[in-house]
Amino acid sequence: MIRQRANFDWMLKELADGVPGVEMIVVLSADGLRIARYGGEPDAADRVAAACAGVQSLAGAVAQELPHGDGEMKMVLIEINGGYFYLMAAGANAYLAVLSDMTCEPGRMGGMMRDLVVRIGAHLTSPPRRNGQTV
Prior knowledge:
The chain is α+β, with helices and mostly antiparallel strands. It is built from three helices and seven strands, in the order H-E-E-H-E-E-E-H-E-E. Helix content is 38%, strand content 28%.
């Protein structure tokens, strides 16, 4: 559930404008449903959101193996041919994903994403679902 959607949209735009090379920003639920997007086509954002569910699950499984961690995925960065993929935990059962080209500086993007999550993390929540229904 995202409160004050219009205010949220300008914050995604602010992230895109703050770092050169952003192609798409997607906010998604832990089960891979798109909550919001900035840039890109809606169908592409849906595919990215679905793929992110698998990535965050995989990252969480790997995080479980760290003996002194809490098993929670905080951020994933993947360098791909032509750009970068970023995925960050962004609230209860919600994630922030960004696709960028190679002009994007990963450290700057990570910092900007973290700042956005701190500012609006309480609004980036998605209640758990069971059989397609909110629990």
